[in-house]
Amino acid sequence: MKVIVGLGNPGKQYAKTRHNVGFLVVDEVAKRLNEKVELKKFNAHYAEFFYNNEKVLLIKPQTYMNLSGESLIQFVNYYNINPEDVLVISDDMNLDRGRLRVRLKGSSGGQKGIQNIIDHFGHNEFPRLRVGIGKNPRIETVKYVLGKLDDDVALGRATDFVVEYLDGESLSTLMNTYNQK
């Protein structure tokens, strides 16, 4: 089983913001695979389907970003999922806009949604895809991350990454390709 979790905040006011890039990638993956993220369980919207003879869950926790682990841990426990089979997608303002960074484990890097997942898992050994949204020193941080995402290239590259992963490409191989500048 492969689980793809996009982090974001529920509500129309956050729908296409930089902070919701995880939700946007999950939506794009679903669209590309002709699926819909419309089921509801464990305070999340999700899709459950088979792709390449493997069960896949696409999850968008509806707990707000900083509490994403509360929803995700329920899926992990219910489906008996190994944390290394959970790929978490989030924004990262410490990465240049459009840059992707894949890690198999590690710290939260200050991302509170990732930290909440680490807290609920009790460890940091799960893969994550960070999508760079950059910074703008002239705009207050909260206003910047809640501003509209206008980078279709990053969204497309992140979607490509997830689809290649679901197609069976190893995370190590994908890291070598997508962690490039």
The major β-sheet equals: 7 strands, mixed
What is the correct CATH architecture?
3-Layer(aba) Sandwich
- The assigned structural class equals alpha/beta
Rg calculated over all Cα atoms? 15 Å
Strand fraction band? Answer: 15-25%
Shape by Cα distribution? globular
* Strands, count: 7
Quick description:
By secondary structure, the protein is an alpha/beta fold. The protein contains 6 helices and 7 strands, in the order βαβββαββαβααα.
Explain what the structure shows.
The chain is α/β, with parallel strands linked by helices and 181 residues long. The protein has one domain: Peptidyl-tRNA hydrolase (Rossmann fold, 3-Layer(aba) Sandwich). 34% of the residues lie in helices and 22% in strands. The protein has six helices and seven strands. It has a seven-stranded mixed β-sheet. A hairpin with a 2-residue loop joins strand 2 and strand 3. Helix 1 packs across helix 5 and helix 2 packs parallel to helix 3. It is globular, with a radius of gyration of 15 Å. The protein starts with a strand and ends with a helix.
Key descriptive features of the protein:
7 strands, Rossmann fold, globular
Write the layout of secondary structure elements.
Elements: E1 2-6, H1 21-32, E2 39-41, E3 44-51, E4 54-61, H2 68-79, E5 86-92, E6 100-103, H3 112-121, E7 128-132, H4 141-145, H5 152-166, H6 171-178
Parallel strand pairs: 1-4, 1-5, 5-7
Antiparallel strand pairs: 2-3, 3-4, 6-7
Helix pairs in contact: 1-5, 2-3
